[in-house]
Design brief:
By secondary structure, the chain is of the alpha+beta class. Helix content is 27%, strand content 42%. The protein contains 2 helices and 5 strands; from the N terminus they run βαββαββ. Strands 4-1-3-2-5 form a 5-stranded mixed β-sheet, covered by helices on one side. The protein is globular and about 35 Å long.
Length: 90
C-alpha cells in the first residue's frame, strides 16, 4: 500500500548536501515526490512509497548526510498524490 508523507526537517540542513542526500535515498528506496529548501532554513520533503520503504526513508531523513545537523523532524501523512518520480524543487 502506498503512503504519502510531508516531512519538515529543521536544523543545519541547507548548504550541506541534504537535498541531494534525500534524492539519492528516494531513488534507492523507490520513493516519489520532491524535496525543497524553505526560506526559514528548513527543508520540506513530500514523499510517496510503500509502507516499509517509507519508514526506512524517513529514518534516513532524520539522520541526513554527515555535514547536516538535524534538530527536529515532523511527519504528517496525507492522501497519495501519485508522483511519478523524485526531484529537487527550486
Amino acid at each position: 500500500m502506498l503512503k504519502n508523507a510531508r516531512i519538515l526537517v529543521k536544523g543545519q540542513v541547507q548548504g550541506v548536501g541534504y537535498r541531494y542526500f534525500v534524492m539519492n535515498k528516494a531513488i534507492e528506496y523507490k520513493i516519489n515526490g520532491f524535496v525543497t529548501n524553505l526560506p526559514d532554513g528548513s527543508v520540506e520533503i513530500e514523499a510517496e512509497g510503500a509502507d516499509q520503504d517509507m519508514e526506512t526513508f524517513i529514518d534516513f531523513c532524520a539522520k541526513g548526510p554527515s555535514r547536516a545537523v538535524v534538530e527536529s523532524i515532523e511527519v504528517q501523512y496525507d492522501e497519495v498524490k501519485n508522483y511519478e518520480s523524485f526531484a529537487i524543487a527550486y
